[in-house]
Amino acid sequence: MTNRISPVAPSLKDLGARKKRPAATVVASFRFYAELNDFIAPERRRREFDFDCATEATIKHVIEAIGVPHTEVDLILVNGVSVDFAQRLRPGDRISVYPKFEAFDISPLLRLRPHPLHITRFVADAHLGGLARLLRMAGFDTVYDNAFDDAEIERIAGSDERIVLTRDRELLKRRSISRGCYVYAQKPDAQLSEILARLDLAGSLRPLSRCLKCNAPLLAVEKAQILDALLPRVREHQQDFSTCSVCRRVFWEGSHWRQMLDRLAQALKMAGDQQASKRAVQSSFPG
């Protein structure tokens, strides 16, 4: 009779040791520039630091593990070469991560974004109702409902090709969100100036062309068609009117209209000042 050696089943202790065994990692060096430093730990800001990366992780996952939403990143250089978010890292790689540039044309280098949007459209999270109203005032198609949860915002952003606006960095880390802005400012007027500056939207405004309530475009309407809806004073002094096709509210160029135009003009001035300041910093050194 031939003796056979039966395989020894692993003990529970052995199985436990296997489960505890750490995944393979590589060590790479990272450096984040400009406002991206606001997302990372203070001891890592504006300096190069080493970070342990799982060998199977993409550079997108590693950047977000460090704390930076991928939507805030506009350029990644690995050992001086532009790469996309799917890049895997090797031991000793040196990674430089940049936000949107104002002072330099880096379009030949970019590897991160899908095709550019032909129309700038937004979806704002539940905490940015004031900003959404101001963006509509400026003429930008902005979807907002304070009942939207993160999953609904992600769905709308994908289906309508909208830029997500939020102060929740975890929302911007969602996989299918490719375009988004973390809003730093806390007051609506400052938020508007920030978005106009960051996305260079000064030339895209169409002031007071949308309903602030419904987001629908306003349509010119003949005075004779809306006489019954007008107050006597308005009927006497105003000749040009527009209306919302959804809520049917009527608008005219009165004092409130002029106040809104003044508010937009101030936001544009602040945006221009912000861009000039950022260009000055980046022209000297982008960090």
Automatic annotation (TrEMBL):
Residues 27-105 form the Ubiquitin Mut7-C domain. Keywords: RNA-binding. Transmembrane segments: none annotated. Residues 120-262 form the Mut7-C RNAse domain. The keyword Electron transport does not apply. GO terms for molecular function: RNA binding. It comes from the Bacteria. This is Twitching motility protein PilT. It comes from Candidatus Accumulibacter cognatus.
